[in-house]
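Hypothesis: this fold can be encoded by more than one sequence.
Test: take the structure tokens below, design a sequence, compare later.
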């Protein structure tokens, strides 16, 4: 585990990124978007800010489940990127070495459990943000699924 639950409370007071987390997120966004300093599942999501109107970048770990790509909110429903994606109607750009225009479609709560389990297996930094272990049963993941939005990544354009 990269960060313990104690670190999480310091870095994400009230479930929102504090000063240290914001600095580390900026560094991670640059690393994720480079495409050569990180695994291909580390991406930077760029979406128009719902208040500022400026493009905002968020480092995320993409999950691949049954051949489809997903983005999971480790901070739950209140994450800024989730609100921005919803306000933008799902329009966003993924960066991992190149820019890819995408549409993010929020998936139904009933479909989230296996994707959440896959996400926790691949994203160790997210584990302190979840109340269950990555080896938990699908029923346990289903019980918390409504708290963690998941978006299907669909390419836009040719």
């Amino acid at each position: 585990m990269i960060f313990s639950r104690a670190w999480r409370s310091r870095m994400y007071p009230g479930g929102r990124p504090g000063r240290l987390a914001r600095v580390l997120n900026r560094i991670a966004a640059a690393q994720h978007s480079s495409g050569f300093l990180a695994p291909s599942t580390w991406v930077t999501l760029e979406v128009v800010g719902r208040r500022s109107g400026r493009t905002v970048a968020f480092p995320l770990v993409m999950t691949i489940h049954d051949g489809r790509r997903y983005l999971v909110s480790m901070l739950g429903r209140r994450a800024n990127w989730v609100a921005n994606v919803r306000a933008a109607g799902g329009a966003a750009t993924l960066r991992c070495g190149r820019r890819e225009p995408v549409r993010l479609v929020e998936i139904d709560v009933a479909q989230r459990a296996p994707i959440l389990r896959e996400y926790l297996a691949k994203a160790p930094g997210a584990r302190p943000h979840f109340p269950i272990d990555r080896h938990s049963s699908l029923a346990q993941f289903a019980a918390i699924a409504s708290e963690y939005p998941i978006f299907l990544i669909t390419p836009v354009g040719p």
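The longest helix spans residues 19-34. The mean pLDDT is 86.
Hypothesis status: open.
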